[in-house]
Amino acid sequence: MMDILNILLSESFWAASLRIATPLIFGVLGALLCEKSGVLNLGIEGVFVAGAMSGWMAVWLGAGLWGGVLVAAGAGAFFGLIHALLTVPLGLSQHVSGLGVTLFATSVSYFTYRTALPNVSSPPRIEPFRALDIPVLSDLPFLGPVLFQQTALTWLALLMVVVIWYVLYRTPLGVAIQAVGDNPDSVDAQGLSVYGLRIGAVVAGSALMALGGAFLTMSAFDAFFFGMVNGRGWICIALVIFASWRPGKALLGALLFGAFDALQVRLQTEVGAVIPSQAFLAAPYVLSIIALVVAARRADYPRALLAPWFKGQR
Amino acid sequence: MTQTIVLSLKGLSKRFGSVVANDDVSLDLHQGEVLALLGENGAGKTTLMNMLFGHYLPDSGAIDVRNEIGAIEPLTLGHPQAALSAGIGMVHQHFTLAENLNALDNIVLGSEPLWRLRRDSAMARSKIEKIMSDTGLQVALDVPVGRLSVGERQRVEILKALYRDVRILVLDEPTAVLTPQEADTLFENIGAMTKRGLSVIFISHKLREVLAFSHRIAVLRHGVKVGEIATKDADERSIARMMVGADTPETQREDMTPGAPIMTLENVSVTGRSKRDSLTNVSFQVARHEILGVAGVSGNGQSALAGLISGLNIPSNGVFRIDGEAIAHGNPSAMIKAGVGRIPEDRHHDGIVGSMSVAENMVIERLNDPEVQSGGILKREAIAENAARLTEAYDVRGPGVSARARLLSGGNIQKLILARVFEQSPKLILANQPTRGLDMGAAAEVARRLLEARKQGAGVVLISEDLDELLGLSDRIMVIHDGELIEAFTRDREEIGLMMAGEYE
Lengths: 314, 505
Description:
The structure holds 2 protein chains of 2 kinds.
Chain A (H helix, E strand, L loop, with lengths): L1 H8 L1 H26 L7 H17 L4 H23 L6 H23 L26 H5 L4 H19 L1 H11 L1 H6 L4 H27 L11 H11 L4 H25 L5 H20 L18
Helix pairs in contact in A: 1-12, 2-7, 2-10, 2-11, 2-12, 3-4, 3-5, 3-10, 3-11, 4-5, 4-10, 7-8, 7-12, 8-10, 11-12, 11-13, 12-13
Chain B lengths: L4 E12 L2 E12 L3 E5 L6 H8 L7 E7 L5 E3 L5 H6 L2 E4 L11 H6 L12 H15 L14 H14 L4 E5 L7 H16 L3 E6 L2 H7 L2 E6 L2 E7 L5 H9 L16 E10 L8 E9 L2 E6 L6 H9 L6 E6 L2 E2 L5 H6 L2 E4 L3 H5 L6 H5 L10 E2 L2 E2 L1 H14 L16 H13 L5 E5 L7 H17 L2 E6 L2 H7 L2 E6 L2 E5 L4 H8 L5
Parallel strand pairs in B: 3-8, 3-9, 6-7, 7-8, 13-20, 13-21, 16-19, 19-20
Antiparallel strand pairs in B: 1-2, 1-4, 4-5, 9-10, 11-12, 11-14, 14-15, 17-18, 21-22
Helix pairs in contact in B: 14-15
């Protein structure tokens, strides 16, 4: 018990939690934006891979780090557009299209990587984002290492929580996105474009998801590996439900998952001899499921989620 | 009333596949006028208005609108945005409200540019408050619309249109979901608005309110405008004849002495997921040779009562007897065996299995009957013969008995259900909104069959939102409000209306 307490009080644990949470924050915000407009985007897992690969490759080919971030966002927007066109004006099954986009984006990314680097055994490295060392603040006890030694992308993720919240709840655009996810007829009857709003939300949301992938190759690590996304996209889909489609709770959910993950790594080294390591690896997922079961019962679904809407069919 | 024409529909036609929804319909609307658009279901009223508002693109025809400065301009067709900016607002029968947003957001939605960093809620609020005090349409602006009552939601819909400074307001069956008092208030508000220059078209098939509140009546039948008449020159009979194209047979109800009780409820409660589908301590009985009418605004426990009688709901306490036998556990097949015939509210979903044939649907409640099967194998020929006989007797028209039931029209689906129910000579019949959405001919047929069953000795529970229907058919009327049933010892519309609103002791 003392061990756990020691871990929870350590700076490195909280710094790691926030680091692990960062890609999830991007992903969960992106998924939230799509779903608020009424479109489930299961392409998220593939968009993560595409973001991770394209961002890394842009930098490896000589672009700046922020250039890489832009390329990743563009790749995400591209796959988001495919999903949006299939599900919004054409009204295809959002599940099928989303899974298709995941398979497609993952394969295209792997294929591009292999074609560009046919003969490498160890993945080439780039110079990733460094911790933003802010004078004075970084030297604060506890808070300094936890908050002020994260990379710029973590800060961007935290900023996006505020931006998405503001857009959704404080701007006419956000109100329209909420309306189209609840009852598309309400938007149509007021002369706004259902298709435009939904396609826009899915494209923007997918660009955000891709940044989560980019964080992996450009901040958490410095290279691209196959399988490195490892289900993070799916976690985000679950976290949106946990968050009941609210940006603030989405941040909380991502941090909670990050904390579980950081904790299991540390517990493994403490008591790893007694309990098999697989149990620790599974722990964050098990805890997520439990949290989800508790939270999802009260979740406030966007009423039009998954329901296609066609112009002129009332 | 001035005679300035503010809107002209000119030769509008619309086809859906091979179905002609509107054929060369022309119509003028004058300033400050209330024009009632009348017609049976499927006559093309809503299609016509959806073309006016830009939801549908007409196949041919044009629309002219008088603009703010008095010039007549053609309207761009097929775009709600164009209709809105030409000063045309529409309140749809199925509300187009986002329930997660509050009334203020719903009203303002789409009226300001999307790409703005902030909303000017204060200005919007003061404008809406001014409209509310001018017209008497009061709603709570900051509560999510999902928590408002139906009447309040409708007011939000009207405010939505008025906020856009509409000069022409279209209301699609505005009173379908309101209590009689709410409906009267609505028409008072409309009257106040027309005095300020607003022109109103309202769609309805309730002759009474059309005669009471409109200035002029236009009647559609099978997509064609068959008549236009000033309301002061019209009466119920003449309009009904225009709508149907023939005189409607009047239903004749003979006096009858009620027999022994067939269904008895003593302090029965049903606990549903919400108050809307619960019953609290309900006691009443229905006798043979008796039609008991249940009046009420929908969502006051009607579904719980219907579920109880069809065996879908289990009473949480109290005694529920059918023909003297206490029913302990809700079980639909036991209810059928006990002699209960069910005409469900949602005939498409609960009344038939759309993907099965007409013939199969006719025997679907008695698949264990030896007439229908032997040794677990269906007797296809017997089923087909049964269906041929019943479609003849009940005049079920459609593409044939082996066609899938969903291909039938609403009225014919109802006749299929009537055939299935009445062939078993039920002792008790649950008729839940049996004529909703039916045209006058089919509705008259339902009424005739219910009266016939009553004559044969069945007890009938008739749940309806149509007070005229209840007054015409029922021997006794009970009012359901908030899960409680009270006997209305009156046939006065006004008093029953107050009881429906829960404002009557």
